Amino acid sequence: MSNPVLVCALRRINAIKVLADTLENLPLCREKLGKSNGVLQRVMALTPEMTFRQAVLFFTEKDFVTGKPPLYCLTCISLTKYICFSYLVGETWRCHVESLFSYLQTGAQVLCTVLLIKPGAWSHGLARILRKLDLEKFTVVGMKHTNLEPDLALGLLSPEMKQDPAVLEAHCTYLTSGSALVLCLQRSNAVKKLLDLLGPEDPKVAQALDPFLWRAQYGINAVQNGFYGSKSYQIAVRDMKLFFPEGLCCADCQTLEEEEV
């Protein structure tokens, strides 16, 4: 109570976990503050309800800056302790002004992401894959099979893969070896949920982590791993425009609309 505090409203995907990890990885900072001003402590609110209550205590709607992703982590920083509370609301960018408190009350936003089932994988297990998607509350709002051109296949690879010519050639050769099935999927927090289901890109790593991960079940090796999933919201928007330029069959998915604003 004797020291001034700085209260910050922070927004980021997975705000709770990222902030907690960040604070845990600042041992030098904690040691300096601890020696000069007592023991450094951190208290985190772990529920959306507590996040909303704390936000109302510290801020009004006029205090917030809009036009960024509605991902909240409110942090009170003093010389002696941290008070952190956070809530993941969605992964979408809003370009128009809306009440940020309304996002805290509404919950996760319905988003779209892209799943590409690689050559050889979809022709053998399509029915099971679609059943799994339904069980995970995904809605298919776009579907097409396509033969990937080399330049398109190249665009799906990560920068790390492109650094090794042999790895790059192996992936491009495989992706263009037959027809692939592309799905546009919709649900709340779709991008992260899909990535969590797919698991690590190497099926052996996925198998060791959880044999029920999709790449653990359908993948053969790091190249023929069964699936490609959009790795972020921005990439999901790019993938949707790339594979479904004609549009999607979902009236309430505003992703492409808002990207164009």
From TrEMBL:
Keywords: Kinase, Transferase. InterPro entries: NDK-like_dom, NDK-like_dom_sf, TXND_domain-containing. Transmembrane segments: none annotated. GO terms for molecular function: kinase activity. It comes from the Eukaryota. SMART domains: NDK. Coiled coil: none annotated. Residues 110-250 form the Nucleoside diphosphate kinase-like domain. Pfam families: NDK. The keyword Kinase applies. Belongs to the NDK family. This is NDK5 kinase.
